[in-house]
Every structure is written in structure tokens, then in C-alpha cells.
Please model this.
Amino acid sequence: MALSEAMKAYYRKQGKTEAEIAAIEAALPSGDDDAADKPVKPKTTATRYPSVSSPTQATALINKVFQDVLKRPATAAEMKKWKPLLKDAQEKNASTQKYTVKGTIGTQATTGGLDADTWLLLQLQQDPEYKAELDKVKFTDPYLFQRQLDKKLYDDAIAAAAGDATKIAEAESTTTYGRGLKDLKDAIETARLAAGAELTDLEVSTLAQEAYDKGLDRERNSFNAFLDSKFKFGATDAKGKAGEQLADLQKVAASNGLDLQKAFGTQLPNWFASINKGESIETYKKMIRDVAKIGMPQNIASLLDNGIDLDAIYSPYKNVMASVLEINPASITLNDPVLRGAITGEKELPIYEFQRQLRKDARWQYTNQAKEEVSDVALKVLRDFGFQG
Model:
């Protein structure tokens, strides 16, 4: 039986498609033409409409979910794995359109269908292969993932430059990663010079990239701790703060009769590194004084423990020695055996006793004082024999 135009118009108003109207018409029983003018109650129908992504759409969808969840695009191997799984899931979870009629009212309902983004997200979360990566994403600063994307653009630009210095310089100055890396490299070089650390240009560049990739430039304390752990120092010719520390330690060593390089040269790089990390330079001055007090009487050792150098302790003897021998005090060092003889492990000489010992020194006979004493003695002898009035 054929539907009349009036019935077809009715169904069209109900939202039925031409295909659905034709299906209803085909299902009608055959009869005379008069029956065609009578409305016939349509049957309930259900049609499935699977929505399957094209290869291009599937690629875009998978990459989007991977970027949102894992902060990276899918690899070629992952595309090969997930595209067929996505297609199969879309076919199995097609949307369904169901048409029902109650009385003279027709109702069309669309149900089901696959939310592909949610499906893939759940698959990744349940896949043991991605657990470690998902955990890492969960606890990683989102800023670092953006930096990884910036780095890829920079690396691609450097690769495209193919060694062309002009193009490489352009990539370093126009990309976000390139500019940030250069700024950090300059900051490290400034810190190196200030601290007096010894690093080559290549080592500075390597440090800058490691620090920048880890995002250490965003947290000053972490950045400083990182540099402190990487800076290297020499034992001689130090510059910057290390140079100032070297001069200070040399002064203390000399004030205690020690040659800093001979006594502590192999330890100095580690000392400077520790001081740069926050250790007090007084720690190492004490170590110098600890060496200087070996063999000294307990009272002298106590003075050294209190930060008083041997130069100050021997100062009274040095002044007496300079006076008696008529020499420049600056020429008398702590390595002078006569001076060091004033204080031994057993005792300290009284000043008077030290003066007496100095008069036995071969140098004393050439002093004006010695000459005067000889002259006075000679004069006395002459007087005793009646040659002088």
C-alpha cells in the first residue's frame, strides 16, 4: 500500500527523513486505494549510525589526548597501535536513533555514541605501560612541559640552520628557548667570574642547558645550589671571591710561619668550593693555626685556638731582636731559627734572657752597640793603666 501525500507530509512534520518514510511505506500491507487515505500507525524503528574518524581525524584526536595527558605527541608506533583500537571502539559504540509513536505523536531519540577523547584518556590511564609516565606528569611543573615544546622548536631551527652561523644566531635570538638559554648562560658566566671559578666556555654552555631544561632559573636558591655543586676552583692564581679568599688565607699562613701552597695546596680547590657553598673561611684559618700550634706549649696553643697568630705572639721577641741586632723588623720572619728559639715546646724565654742570647749571635758584633761597648772597654783599660785622664 502506498502512502498518500498527506501522510507523507505528516511524517515530514514529525521529522522523519525520506528514507524513513519509504521504509514505513514499504511495511504497509497491500489493499485497495481507498485504504491509502486512512492514516496507518507507523512501527517503532531503530537505526545505528557509527561515527568513525578518518585517518587524519584519528591522528589529530590521538595527538590531542596525548598532549593533554602526557604533555607530548604520540609516536609513530603509538599511532599504529591506537588508530585501529579507536576505529574498533567507534564501530562498536555507534549512536542509535530510535523512532517511536504514541497515538498521533512520533518521538525520535538519539542515544549512545563514543566520546573518543574520554575513551582514549581512560585507556591510557588503565594501561600499565603509561603508569610511570602519568605519575611523572602528575608531579612535574607544567611550565617544564611548555619548555620542552619550546626546546623542540629551537632544536628544529638549529638543525635547519645546518651549521650556518647567521641562521644559528637568528634561532638563538628569535626563539623563546634560545633567548632564555642565552640569558642563563650569561648569568652563569657572571656568577663564575664573581666566585673565581674555573670553567671553560663549553662547560658554561653545558651547565646553562642543564639548568634551563630543569627550570632551575625560576628558583634562585635551587639555581645557586646547582652552581655551587658544579663550580671548580684552582689552587693558584684564583680571581674574584676565590682570589680574595686566597689572599686572606695566604696572610694567615704567613703569619704562622707556613707556606700556604706547600702546606695546603692540594686542599685549596676544595676549600674554595666549600666556602662558595657557604662554609666560613674561619674554618680553614683555624685549620692553618692548628698546624702552626704543633709542638707549641699549651699556653701558646690556647692563644692560637683563640685566633691569635704566631706573628703576634712572637712580636715582642721580634722587636727585641731587631733592636739588639740593629736590623729591620720586617726582615725577620717566623722561619728565623733565632726567633723561633725564643719559644720551644718546653718553655718561653724571658725577654731579658732572649736579649742575652742575641748578644752571642754573630751578627751582634757588627752593631753600633757592640762597637760602643768595645770602645768603652778599651777606654777603661787605658784609664786603668793611666793613659787617659
In short: The chain has a mean pLDDT of 84. Residues 143-230 form one domain.
